[in-house]
Each structure stands twice: as structure tokens, then as C-alpha cells.
Amino acid sequence: MTTLQQIDLQCPICENRFRSQAVVSTNSFGGKRTDFHERAAGTQPLPYLIHTCSRCGYSGSERDFTEDADVSPVLKERVWNELAPAIATGPVSGSEKYEAAAKVADWQGLEPRHVADLLLRAAWCCVDEGDIEAERFFRRKAAWKFDEALQSFDGVARDERAVLTYLVGELWRRVGDAKLAAEWFNRVASEVVDAHTQQWVIDAARQQRDCPREWFG
Ligand SMILES: [Zn+2]
Predict the structure, then answer these.
(1) What's the CA-to-centroid distance between 107 and ligand 1, angstroms?
(2) pLDDT per 10-residue tile (average), the chain, 217 residues
(3) Cα–Cα nearest to 33, from 164, 150, 127, 129
(4) Ligand 1 center to 118 CA (angstroms)
């Protein structure tokens, strides 16, 4: 189960002080989907790992609301111009938080790999929110961003390339594009650097191409 607690945050963009719920602990994972989406018993922790300022829409992890946050004048301007006008009056959903956090990370010039992870988490939140259309939208965006990371020099560590190549295939499969998914799954073996520890990735890619499953194990 997931334990939450109230935390006090101050927005580094607009100075707004607000309360947010954060994860204290989480365990009892009920399993892992074949896109690595882990499930907790009861409340899912994901929406509470990202916080959104209720005034300007700036979003990120708890660390992004400390003095360590990388806040430039350009970032401030983009938050005010693009996130603030879209602020809803009610509670912000997990996928909305991750979408905003992905934009902030992109504007901060963070690695495509990092932005892709946030977009993938937005898709995972959509699964719990029961929004299939938005889930596909974020899976597509995550796949493109992981692709960008794989193409950039040093964007992905050598020993992580095979598993991310598999993940892009799995994202396209879950979007419904079996042909594109197969192209990515077929590329996995050539990205493997250690056949001993990474055989499972080759096996997973073959399985998801030929006889797909929704859960590992
Ligand atoms: Zn703010």
C-alpha cells in the first residue's frame, strides 16, 4: 500500500505557498506490466511523486520546489505563457501533472531520456484514470522522445540501449501499431552488449512481437 503525507511547498516561479500530497512509502506491488508499469496495492503512488503549483502550473518533483531548482527567466516566461493559462480550478490529475513536468523539463533543456520518462509516467497515470485516448497520446510522445534519446550521442548508456529499444517497441504495440512495434523489437538483439545478463530483453522482444502479453511473470 501507499502512504501519503501533506507537505508544504513554495513555487520557485511565482512564490506561491501551497500544500501537496507526497509519498512517504509504497510497497506490495501487484506486478509489472510489459511496459514496466509497476502496480501498488490500493492507492497508486505515481500521481503523488509530482507536484503542481496551483497558481502558475509549474510542475516537478519535490526537489524542483527547493533552491536546487533550475529556474531561468526564459523558463518563468514559458510557465506564465503556456502553463498558467491552462490551470484548472479543480484537482489536477496525475497525467496533467506529468505532462506539465515534462514541458518544464524540456524547457530546462534536460535530456530527452528524462523528458521521455515523464511522458511515459503520464501514460501510466492515464491507465489508472481510464482515459485510453490520452494514454495513446502520451505513449506516442514518449516513444518519439525515447527514440530521440537513442539517436543522440551519449543520450542513453550503452548497456541500457537494448531495454529502451524494447520499450519503444512495446509503446508502439500498445498504441496499436504492430508493424512499427515489430521493427523496434527486431532491433533489440543488435543493441545487446552482454548476452548473459540481457538475454531476457531479447526473449521479451520476441514474445511481444509474436505472442504479446500484458504482464511480466
Ligand atoms: Zn507557481
Answers:
(1) 16
(2) 94 97 85 91 93 97 94 97 91 96 97 97 97 98 98 92 98 98 98 96 98 92
(3) 127
(4) 20
pLDDT at 50: 98
- How far, in Å, from the CA of 145 to the mean position of ligand 1? 26
CA-to-CA distance for 2 and 181, rounded, in angstroms? Answer: 33
CA of 55 to the centre of ligand 1 (A): 5
Q: Sign of dihedral through CA atoms 24, 30, 36, 37?
A: negative
Q: What is the pLDDT of residue 175?
A: 98
Which residues, in sequence order, are CB contacts of 192 under 8 Å at separation 6+?
Answer: 162, 198, 201, 202
CA 17 – ligand 1 centroid, Å: 8
The DSSP call for residue 155 is S
Neighbouring C-beta atoms of residue 78, cutoff 10 Å: 19
Residue type, 147: D
Query: Residue ranges of the domains in the chain?
Result: 2-156, 157-217
Ligand 1 centroid – CA 3 distance (Å): 26
pLDDT at site 28: 65
* 80 CA to centre of ligand 1 in angstroms: 9
| Protein residues within 5 Å, CB atom, of ion ligand 1 | 11, 13-14, 16, 53, 55-56, 58
